[in-house]
Amino acid sequence: MQIFIEAIDLNIWDFVENGPFIPTIVVGNEIKNLPKDQWSDDDKRKAQYNLKAKNIITSALGIDEYFRILNCTSAKEMWDTLKVTHESTNNVKRYRRNTFTHEYELFRMNQNESIQDMQKRFIHIINHLASLGKVFPNEDLINKVLRCLSREWQPKVTAIAESKDLTTMSLA
After folding, report:
1. To the nearest 10°, the Cα dihedral for 146, 151, 156, 161?
2. Which of 9, 63, 117, 164 is least enclosed, having the fewest CB within 10 Å?
3. CA distance 102 to 87
4. Pick from 40, 24, 44: which is nearest to 32 by CA?
5. Residue 172 confidence (pLDDT)
């Protein structure tokens, strides 16, 4: 979403991250919101960024996500709500990363499992890890797959390891 918003206008993303621009005025010792009829053209332009951001975000959402952010008053509030919903908190992310790392470390081909099913399970794990910020070099992934194949695959593993440059191989 960040790339999409920045592609439209770099300034809009600043308002998603930092919150809306609200023109203020100092009255005595108090800071008060400036009435809209007193906003300068620059104030209006800056305030418009929040509205553009809200429009972009809501346009990209499905109905369930839309209802989650329906009562949010700023693009920042919308974004923060969506982040918590989809990315979870740092503790949850750390727990999920540890769980998927553990699955990766213990990964083995199951008995009677096809190579395609094993590959799907492996890709599922590494995609989750990548989404949580843990990325492995391609060569490490290839070596991991070769190490976890069942005994019946060992002659092929040996042939692949001896004849191929593993740095040029892909999991696809």
Report:
1. 40
2. 63
3. 20
4. 24
5. 66
